[in-house]
Design brief:
Layout: E1 2-9, E2 15-21, E3 31-35, E4 47-49, E5 56-65, E6 78-87, E7 90-98, H1 103-106, H2 108-111, H3 141-146
Antiparallel strand pairs: 1-2, 2-5, 3-4, 3-6, 6-7
Length: 157
């Protein structure tokens, strides 16, 4: 259960919020809600979706977040939105949209045995963009300037 900020901007500032869930066992009447405060039974959600599958996501239609205007610091903090999975009169899971400034040190035991080229770093410039080199596209400006990674991990091993 999570709240995610969409990577596609609605305008130059705001980005829509996405509700995502995994490994749910939805039954009739279950719902997932977006909240603007920590959810409790009886809290009024901003947005509701009925899960139809074990895992999924939905982009909210009118709820968005602007880019932070202040320094967020180096401690985890919630940014004003929560998601909750509700079944009957119970909240089965919830989480907030939060910063993760120490994720690399939090995962030191998992990351330390890896080489830098084995780690996918989300949020870095053009992370994951890749295309095998095709000499026939050399003069295509769109391709030339949108795909910036042309080497797989097999190079430099």
């Amino acid at each position: 259960m999570s709240v995610i900020v969409s990577s596609v901007p609605k305008d130059k500032v705001a980005r829509r919020l996405i509700l995502a869930w995994e490994n749910a066992s939805p039954v009739s009447g279950d719902w997932i809600g977006l909240f603007d405060k920590e959810p409790a039974i009886g809290s009024e959600p901003l947005y509701v979706v009925q899960p139809q599958a074990l895992s999924g996501w939905v982009e909210t239609d009118s709820h968005e977040t602007p880019s932070p205007s202040q320094d967020l610091g180096y401690t985890k903090k919630c940014l004003g939105f929560w998601a909750a999975y509700v079944s009957g009169d119970s909240i089965l899971a919830s989480s907030c949209l939060q910063t993760e400034p120490t994720w690399m040190s939090d995962m030191e035991s998992e990351l330390s045995p890896l080489l830098l080229r084995q780690i996918f770093l989300p949020g870095t410039h053009d992370t994951g963009s890749f295309q095998e080199y095709d000499p026939s596209t050399e003069n295509n400006l769109l391709i030339k300037y949108t795909i910036t990674q042309v080497r797989t991990s097999r190079y430099g091993q």
